[in-house]
């Protein structure tokens, strides 16, 4: 996630540069054909393209709102997981009477979850925090994050039975695990349910078509400065389309995605410090991007 404005502007400019170059070259082609070779058929009325631009702007706004809602819901669910993981660590220490292995397993949970959401193999954080036996059980299952919650739940049950802890305490801890599982289900729903094609493909196609037609309606009025006006307007529409496509996938490994590594490290530090373990350092931003 971009967290630094100057670096963020530089990233956005680098992303916008290729379409800007292509649009400018196309605009020059249109101007040369019209002004030098007198291809008068290239002059098109401006009213249709104006109406198309207005409709496209509304369409892009609707799609971008839907994409941002997906991104923000993902961030909200990660916030819920953060709070519930902290609550579990506190309850494990105060109500279950210790069990640092359960705190470490819960510290590994966000790392397991982010790897699952990104379709990545087990990372070093998982291996570092999980006991070898639990690691093998977790990563022998297709849904690794769910299996880890299951193993943590079994550990809680064993502790309750071993120490004769009151059932109400067990219920309190189990509700925390259920809340974490509910948040995980919401994240999996976002990952496995992409935006409909009408919201993802049509705006992209319409934006490209609009940028192709735009200089044809401006060349008569703007003449040789058509590349300046047309390419800037086209680039703005391209950037609007690109921002929506970036936000609609909040878990992919990109500068626009949620900073899942940072959030997972924050949870890990919050759980390891109370049990006396030395936590790893916080994740710093790199070139204005929080991973």
Can you characterise this structure?
With 291 residues, the protein is an all-alpha fold. It has one domain (5-9, 49-275). The chain has ten helices and no strands. The protein has helices spanning 5-35, 46-94, 100-117, 124-129, 132-138, 144-163, 167-192, 197-222, 226-247, 260-272. The radius of gyration is 26 Å and the shape is elongated. This is Membrane protein. GO terms for molecular function: chloride channel activity. It is a multi-pass membrane protein.
Fold blueprint:
Layout: H1 5-35, H2 46-94, H3 100-117, H4 124-129, H5 132-138, H6 144-163, H7 167-192, H8 197-222, H9 226-247, H10 260-272
Helix pairs in contact: 1-8, 1-9, 2-3, 2-7, 2-8, 2-9, 2-10, 3-6, 3-10, 6-7, 8-9
Spell out the key features of this protein.
291 residues; mainly alpha; 75% helix; 0% strand; transmembrane; YneE/VCCN1/2-like
Helix content: over 70%
Question: Helix and strand string, N-terminal first?
Answer: HHHHHHHHHH
Total count of strands: 0
- What is the C-alpha radius of gyration, as a whole number of Å? 26 Å
Global morphology: elongated
In total, how many domains does the architecture comprise? 1
Low-confidence stretches: none
Number of helices: 10
Largest sheet: none
Average the pLDDT over all residues and give the rounded result: 90
- N- and C-termini, Cα separation: 6 Å
What structural class do you assign from the helix and strand content? mainly alpha
Beta-strand proportion: under 5%
Protein name: Membrane protein
GO molecular function, one term: chloride channel activity
Subcellular location: Cell membrane
Main location: membrane
